[in-house]
């Protein structure tokens, strides 16, 4: 299965709806953290989106029983949410975002981790769609309810206890998607009262290094990047970031590069840095 699909591929499916009735398109754009004037990505979706696209609100679809941001909900809650959106397990799901690469991989990871069978990312997102002179529409979109049975893949997600067990075992393949300055402790975290820095033995791979001209780099360049960071794609890898969003960019990049054993630490730095016994290194 091709994880990345082109605007031409998606347009062909939309032009033959009778042959592809199970195609679901999702706009999964989150506003960036730390921007002074908040960006209303839902309003942007309403103003312009790919025909038939549903707004996949990552924040709304996350677990609100915890103060941690963007945490994966329970399988039961996710089942209800996807069913009400009209998303079935066997649907062909195509996810995009409005600008560059930031949050669409998080939606991809959520759906895959909860049992969706056929999930893709639109390479280049809405910008590439528009640049290809393909049509857009405005206003909300609603689909008839479907049946989604979520089954959590426990191997795809790590909690704090599992992360600390890796650290105690001197697990070196923890990849941190935050900026170099936040990783080094020379720039503050965008969330208040959190120290910057990094976990012992973690490797800094800012998610922006995986992006070129508003889209993910091709697989060969991703492999070169991971090799330069001395990452063994044949060994287990855990990804982390500030809140679990851009860690999914790294997870997607690793899968495109051929890694087979990748998990995401869902609490990420927002959880780890709050713990009084957490070791935080700065360099």
Automatic annotation (TrEMBL):
Protein name (database record): Thiosulfate/3-mercaptopyruvate sulfurtransferase
Organism superkingdom: Bacteria
Keywords: Transferase
EC number(s) on file: 2.8.1.1, 2.8.1.2
Gene source species: Tunturiibacter gelidiferens
């Amino acid at each position: 299965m091709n994880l990345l699909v082109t605007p031409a591929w998606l347009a062909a499916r939309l032009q033959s709806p009778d042959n592809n009735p199970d195609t679901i398109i999702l706009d999964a754009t989150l506003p960036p953290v730390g921007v002074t004037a908040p960006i209303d990505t839902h309003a942007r979706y309403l103003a312009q989106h790919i025909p038939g696209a549903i707004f996949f609100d990552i924040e709304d679809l996350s677990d609100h029983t915890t103060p941690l941001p963007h945490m994966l909900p329970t399988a039961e809650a996710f089942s209800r949410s996807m069913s009400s959106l009209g998303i079935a397990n066997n649907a062909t799901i195509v996810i995009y975002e409005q600008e560059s690469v930031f949050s669409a991989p998080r939606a991809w990871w959520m759906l895959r981790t909860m049992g969706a069978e056929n999930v893709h990312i639109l390479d280049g997102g809405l910008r590439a769609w528009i640049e290809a002179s393909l049509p857009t529409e405005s206003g909300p979109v609603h689909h008839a309810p479907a049946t989604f049975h979520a089954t959590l893949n426990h191997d795809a997600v790590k909690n704090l206890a599992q992360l600390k067990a890796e650290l105690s075992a001197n697990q070196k393949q923890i990849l941190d998607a935050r900026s170099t300055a936040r990783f080094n402790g020379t720039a503050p975290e965008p969330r208040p009262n959190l120290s910057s820095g990094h976990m012992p033995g973690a490797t800094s791979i800012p998610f922006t290094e995986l992006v070129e001209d508003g889209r993910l780099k091709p697989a060969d360049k991703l492999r070169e990047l991971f090799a330069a960071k001395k990452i063994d794609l044949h060994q287990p890898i855990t990804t982390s970031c500030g809140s679990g969003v851009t860690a999914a960019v790294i997870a997607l990049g690793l899968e495109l590069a051929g890694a087979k054993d990748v998990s995401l630490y869902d609490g990420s730095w927002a959880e780890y840095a709050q713990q009084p016994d957490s070791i935080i290194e700065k360099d």
